[in-house]
UniProtKB/TrEMBL annotation:
Name of the protein described by the UniProt record: UDP-4-amino-4, 6-dideoxy-N-acetyl-beta-L-altrosamine transaminase
Superkingdom, natural source: Bacteria
Record's keyword annotation contains Thylakoid: no
Active-site residues from the entry: 195
Pfam families according to UniProt: DegT_DnrJ_EryC1
N-terminal signal peptide: none
Modified residues (N6-(pyridoxal phosphate)lysine): 195
Keywords (A to Z) from UniProt: Pyridoxal phosphate
Length: 395
């Protein structure tokens, strides 16, 4: 068994998935066809949001969100340091300024108190938005973030890349699914192979806001619209007589080509059908990890069993993390570190961030390690991971 390498995450492609892609490859549309709408509709239903917009990848999704919300040079936006860099970079694409909050050391999520501190220490209107992240698959409590956002007139973009199918329970006792748009203006997902649903590259934006929805559709395709009642050039200019000719379209704002292809969407649709099954399995694995590591002297903290957690990652905070990481590699177990704090990436240091600025994030980074977590990880393999970790610390 030690001969098969065990990664921290991996995709699961079935014959049915392959069949779905082949059918689309043989169809009339490789891109801009019917699979996109079908994927968007089934994804929106799964998440519980009104609208979904499929895009090329999660980073493109974030970029379009920042554009749709009119992020401009000088605008300040808050996010967490413990995330993939794209959560912050999307603000920089639009010239905005990223300000990092700190994490809550218990949940690993953006600490609302650190956000409040930032907001209170600047004149109102300084900050424009927040990008909270459902890090590792644990849903952030957007109900409290929404209340704070309303107080300061901020928008919220939920980075839910780790958490399709995750939820938190609101004060009314209702399950609020990540990305359902009840508390955030926009939410984004990624379909990179390490995430829950794989389409190769791929992403999705969900929202309940009709205006933002139409704006996103336009930005996804170069800023072009094809809708008679919205044109600003005259019919005469367009070359029509009574009406706009059917070839006519207008580029009204500067957009991009951030489209997903139809064969990727076909894979996404097929994968989505197994999403609940995948989460169920991830939760079983999490429970076994928690049982195995609870009370161990080498564990400082772990992800643990948390209601609504979607378990993109299962994280341990350990002593001697480097030693464990290398030992696991020598045993063909490829654990990973999520994440190197964003505010200390050389790119972000140039804006004035330095060590000690976000102590909880930095302390977390010193001990964190993400264990293998994916639906096809067998119990035997998981036992091997657990016993190898135990062996490292206790011989
Ligand atoms: C994967 C990921 C992204 C970016 O998604 P891509 O599809 O790789 O561009 C953004 N944010 C988080 C938290 C992610 O995990």
């Amino acid at each position: 068994m030690a001969n098969n390498s065990i990664p921290y995450g991996r995709q699961h492609i079935t014959d049915e998935d392959i069949q779905a892609v082949i059918e689309t490859l043989r169809s009339d549309y490789l891109t801009q066809g019917p699979k996109i709408k079908e994927f968007e509709e089934s994804f929106a239903t799964y998440i519980g949001a009104k609208y979904a917009v499929a895009v090329a990848n999660g980073t493109a999704a974030l970029h379009l969100c920042a554009m749709a919300l009119n992020v401009e040079p000088g605008d300040k936006v808050i996010t967490t340091p413990i995330t993939f860099a794209a959560s912050a970079n999307c603000i920089r694409y639009c010239g905005g300024e990223v300000v990092f909050g700190d994490i809550n050391p218990e949940t690993y999520l953006l600490d609302i108190n650190s956000v409040r501190d930032l907001l209170e220490s600047s004149p109102k209107g300084t900050y424009k938005g927040i990008v909270p992240v459902d890090f590792a698959g644990r849903s952030i409590d957007l109900e409290v973030f929404k209340a704070l956002a309303e107080e300061y007139n901020l928008w919220i973009v939920e980075d839910a890349c780790h958490a399709p199918g995750g939820y938190f329970v609101d004060t009314q006792g209702n399950e609020q699914r990540c990305g359902n748009g009840n508390f955030a203006d926009l939410a984004i997902f990624s379909f990179h192979p390490v995430k829950h649903i794989a389409s190769g590259e791929g992403g999705m934006i969900t929202t309940n806001d009709e205006k933002l929805y139409y704006k996103l559709l336009q930005l996804r395709t170069h800023g072009i619209i094809k809708q008679d009642n919205l044109y600003t050039n005259t019919i005469e200019f367009a070359g029509g007589d009574e009406a706009y000719p059917s070839w006519y379209m207008e580029m009204q704002t500067l957009g991009y080509n951030y489209r997903l292809t139809d064969f990727q969407a076909a894979l996404g649709i097929s994968q989505l059908k197994r999403a609940d099954q995948g989460i169920k399995r991830r939760r079983e694995l999490a429970k076994r990890y928690e049982n195995a590591f609870t009370g161990k002297d080498y564990i400082k903290r772990q992800s643990g069993v948390v209601e609504g957690h979607a378990y993109h990652l299962y994280i341990l905070e350990v002593r001697d993390r480097l030693g464990l990481y290398n030992y696991l590699r020598s045993k063909n177990i490829f654990a990973q570190i999520h994440y190197i704090p964003c505010h200390l990436m050389p790119y972000y240091r140039q804006f004035g961030c330095k060590e000690g600025d976000r102590p909880h994030s930095e302390e977390y980074y010193r001990g964190c390690i993400s264990l293998p977590m994916y639906p096809t990880l067998s119990e035997e393999e998981q036992e091997y991971v657990i016993s190898t970790i135990h062996q490292y610390f206790h011989g």
